[in-house]
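Subject — a protein and its fold
Fields — amino acid sequence, C-alpha cells
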Amino acid sequence: SMSSMKDGPVKPVPHLPWIPYEYNIMKELFKLKILSPGISREKYNIFVNDILIYWPCISLPKDYTFEYLLEREPLILLGFIAVTCLNQPDLHDTLLYYLEGNLAQRVSISGDITVNLIQIYLVLSLWGSPPRKWGSYKHQMSLLTALDLSLCLDLGNEKFRDSSNVLKSNSEERKIIRAYI
C-alpha cells in the first residue's frame, strides 16, 4: 500500500470505486466527493504559488489554468493536487491510488508516453511522499532522475516544450526518452 512508505502501521488501500482511465479523473473524483472543485482550485493555487517556485527547472505553460487543466489535462491537475496533500495521509493515499493506477494503465497498456505524462512523474518524484530514511538511496535516485529528466527535456524552456518535434511517433527523441524512462 501507499502507507508502507510512511512511519506507523501499514494500512491496506481501501476499497475505492474504480474509475476507467478514459474518463476525466478529476470530474469523477468530484462525483465521488473525494475532492471538491473549491478545494481542488485552492490546492492547485498552493502548488503554483507556494511549491513550484522552488524548482525553476520546471515551468508551466501560460494556458495551464485550473479550468484548462480540469478540461484538457486532468491527470496533470491531479498530480499537482496530490503533492499538496502530503500532510493529509488518507487523502494523499487515495489520490495516489487513482493517479498511479491511471498512469500505470496509460504507460503499460497504451504505451503513449507524452511530455505531459513525464511531467506528472517529475512532479511525483520531486514532491513525493518521503521514505522512512531521508538519506535513502531510493529517495536520492528519484530526485536525481526527476531533475535529470527535466533538464534532458528542457522543461524549463517553454519554446521547446510545445515543439511538435519533441515526441513525434517514431522520432529519435521518443526512443531516447522511452529508453531513459
About this structure: Residues 1-6 have pLDDT under 50 and may be disordered.
